[in-house]
Amino acid sequence: MAQSAAVATARANRRGEAFSWACIAPLVLVLGPFFLAPLLAVIAASVFQTDGFGGMTPAFDLSSYREILTSGLTFNLYWETVKFTVLTWFFSLVIGFFVAYFLVFHVRNRLLGLGLFLLCTIPFWTSNIIRMISWIPLLGKQGLINTALLETGLIHEPLEFLLFSSFAVVVAYVHQLTIFMIVPIFNSMGRIDKALVEAAVDAGASRFDVMRLIILPLSKSGIALGSIFVVSIVMGDFFVVKVMSGGGSASVVGAFYEDVGVLQYPKAAASAVLLTVVLMVAVALILRTVDIRKEITR
Amino acid sequence: MTNDDTGMTKISKSGAKRPSRRSLLKGAAAVAGAAVVGDPIRGFPTVWAQDIKDIELRHIGVSYSVVQPIGVQASKDLGFKVSMQNLDTSAAINRFITQPNTVDIADLEGWQAKLAAKRGVIQGIETKKIKEFDNFLPIFTKGELDGHKIPRQGISPYQALYLASKDATELHDGVSDWMTNVPQVYNADSLGYRPDLIGHPVTEWKELINPKYKGKAAILDVPAIGIMDAALCFESADLIKYGDKGNMTKPEIDFTINKLIELKKDGQFRATWTTFEQSVSLMAAGEVIIQSMWSPAVAAVRVKQIPCSYAAMNIKDGKEGYRGWCNGMGLMRHLTGKKLDAAYEYLNWYLSGWQGAFVSRYGYYSPVPSTAKKFMTDAEWQYWYEGKPSPEIVKDPFGQPMEPVGTKRDGGSFIERVTNISCWNTLMDESAYMNKRWNDFKVA
Question: What is the rounded average pLDDT of the residues A260-268?
């Protein structure tokens, strides 16, 4: 009797295990060939030797890493990229947080709130590149803003910092990426029990206290998720920097793209591996501040 | 990358428009002659229409050289399909080297031909099968033009054109029976500027770094050629004398980049550009008044009714001169049998004149102008090749008016422009180091 029960349990376990495998199979099938394999190829390429003309010979040569890690250029590139990342992260967080806050707590009608939320995604229907390029006629020397300021007599020389500058890069990034903050923050705020806010107000909390002591801590998971999106996208991008800085600024990815252009594959691969490691550390740090798994299943 | 694709979109988009009836008839006649009669003396195999109609050739390269309407015309004339694909310079060479089997005809610059040969991804092209080979300008067969030696700073087309055998991986100096590629289009690059704002004709590269134009200048951001534009400027300003601008030593690279960084910190450059379209919009939007530029980009600015001139950079005292470039078609090694025959037909079609006339209408040149001339009007020939005032309105390849009667081409005649080329696009031996230093300039 007991034995057959044990067998049944074992069979059930096995079936459960098979079910789990079936559940993750699609993800494994996608991640294996499209993420893991290329990543391994890049890691392998980063320790190969090259003849400088695109030919590679298998080896275990760490000279590419040595070159990157001892170069002042790497430091400057990361400094530049991190600067853009932090600025973009900060502005998209502030804007994203308040937009989500408004949609969740100030729009009383839930349906209207959802409708407005969908409105936020409309700019997303056009391509990134178009959204970025459309800033150029606005910010240029003879652009709309400069023309308007010149004609109202507020300035006498066009403001050059508006375009082809770090300012322009950050504007374009914030425009592109704020939606990645709004969505997860909106989602986590939506799950805050409104009664909690009412209770706090009844107990004499000011609006600022409610924000600081209730909403902010309870939106942490959304903020963390949004931050991961923004940080990884900005650090992994080069095109916005290239166009909006007018080529006046470089980025980590832009630099190794150019290495690929002159067929320096191992060095480009080593730079890519380094960036992956840096990003993993950044994501790990973000995740340390909040237990996303717990928050999401809350 | 996506951005360079825009290079010639203007040309591609309006490509549906018909070429003139005259050129169409001529083209059809010439091709019919070529395809049906063949060349009995050289024994060129005649490929029959029924065998070739299923063939598709993929011609891949940069947008200013691999141009959609040319592929459309070729397909029409040849009876098999030619599909054109555009990639930027670095994506193209990476594709040729890492995925050679996805390409049939590789559009190569001299340095790319050298690399492709070295990697063994292309096969030698038999000069005997190239009908117009004997009519190539001596630039390509002797390394000279009009008695003038074509300089070898950088990599001149002649240097990268020949192989000792079909499967050779090293270049051969001097004419042989095998070519790395069939040259198809070339030009001389210099600076574009706003004559109304600069106030005098620009004939020296150092104008680009003139402090008068602080914040109103731009330089090309393709490291391999941007650094040559910078070198031409610094030589012009007597800051340095290079051994070979096309193959700098490390100290020369350091000097050049440090000087660029200094200029950048002083605010000389408003921007840098990487694509044809970017250079047009920088100039047209009034962001810059002088910059590295390509000849059709200057024309594109002028079409917008904005005055823009192309600097005539004739060589003076061993300084100045244009930066030349040349693209040619290489046959990938995997081509065999009928497909290879079709590819040879395609190469021969390219040199038969229609394409040469087409590219000349935006300022580029054909390696066999004698065939291109047959497809051009006398007025076009006088304007584009002879540098004479145009007796008619100058029209672009699609018949849109570009210049009024009496306009003379900036820089003058073909001979004058090409013999004043002082260096050629290239990839330096120290390219890895140069690239790293170029990024120092970018991030400074």
Answer: 89
Q: Which long-range contacts (CB under 8 A, 24 or more apart) does B249-252 make?
A: B249/B430, B250/B430, B250/B433
- The whole-angstrom separation of Cα A239 and Cα A260 is 15
Whether residue A35 contacts residue A245, with contact meaning beta carbons closer than 8 Å, is answered with no
Structural domains present in chain B: 3-186+325-378 (3.40.190.10), 188-323+414-443 (3.40.190.10)
**pTM confidence score:** 0.83
Q: Which amino acid is at A57?
A: T
Chain B nearest-CA residue for A264: B432
Cα-Cα-Cα-Cα dihedral of A190, A193, A194, A197, to 10°? -110
> B214 CB near a chain A CB, below 8 Å?
no
Distance (Å) from the C-alpha of residue A262 to the closest C-alpha of chain B? 7
DSSP state of B44: B
State whether residue B274 sits within 8 Å of chain A by CB. yes
Contact B94 A261 (CB under 8 A): yes
Domain layout of chain A by residue ranges: 72-297
Q: Which two tokens stand for residue B440?
A: 């120092």
Per the CB < 8 Å rule, is A77 touching B439? yes
| Cross-strand partners of B58 | B83
Residue B210 DSSP label: -
Determine whether the interchain pair B438/A141 forms a contact, defined as Cβ–Cβ distance below 8 Å: no
Residue, of B280 and A54, whose pLDDT is higher: B280
| Tokens of residue B156, six digits | 């001149």
For position B10, what pLDDT does the model report?
41
**CB contact, 8 Å: B269 with chain A?**
yes
* Exposure string over B71-80, b if 16+ CB within 10 A, otherwise e: bbbbbebbbb
Confidence of residue A297 (pLDDT cuts 50, 70, 90): low
The tokens for A173 are 């990034």
| Cα distances (Å, whole numbers) of residue B399 to B62, B295, B393 | 24, 18, 10
3-state secondary structure chain A: CHHHHHHHHHHHHHHHHHHHHHHHHHHHHHHHHHHHHHHHHHHHHHCCEECCCCCEECCCCCHHHHHHHCCHHHHHHHHHHHHHHHHHHHHHHHHHHHHHHHHHHHCCCHHHHHHHHHHHCHHHHCCHHHHHHCCHHHHCCCCHHHHHHHHCCCCCCCCHHHCCCHHHHHHHHHHHHHHHHHHHHHHHHHCCCHHHHHHHHHCCCCHHHHHHHHHHHHCHHHHHHHHHHHHHHHHCCCHHHHHHCCCCCCCHHHHHHHHHHCCCHHHHHHHHHHHHHHHHHHHHHHHHCCCHHHHHHC
Does the predicted interface ipTM exceed a cut of 0.90? Answer: no
In this prediction, residues B89-99 reach a mean pLDDT of: 91
The one-letter code for the residue type at B101 is N
Q: What is the pLDDT of residue A2?
A: 59
Which of B224, B270, B440 lies nearest to residue A246, judging by beta carbons? Answer: B270
Q: What's the number of CA atoms in the CB half-sphere (13 Å) around residue B432?
A: 14
Shortest CA distance to B313 belongs to which of B389, B420, B200? B420
With 50 as the cut, is the pLDDT of residue B26 above it?
no
Strands B182-193 vs B309-310: parallel, antiparallel or unpaired: antiparallel
Dist. CA B22–CA B25, nearest whole Å: 5
Nearest-angstrom CA–CA distance, B263 and B441: 10
Is B89 part of the contact surface with chain A (CB cutoff 8 Å)?
Answer: yes
> Is B33's pLDDT higher than 60?
no
CA distance B287 to chain A (A): 6
Has domain A72-297 been given CATH number 1.10.3720.10? yes
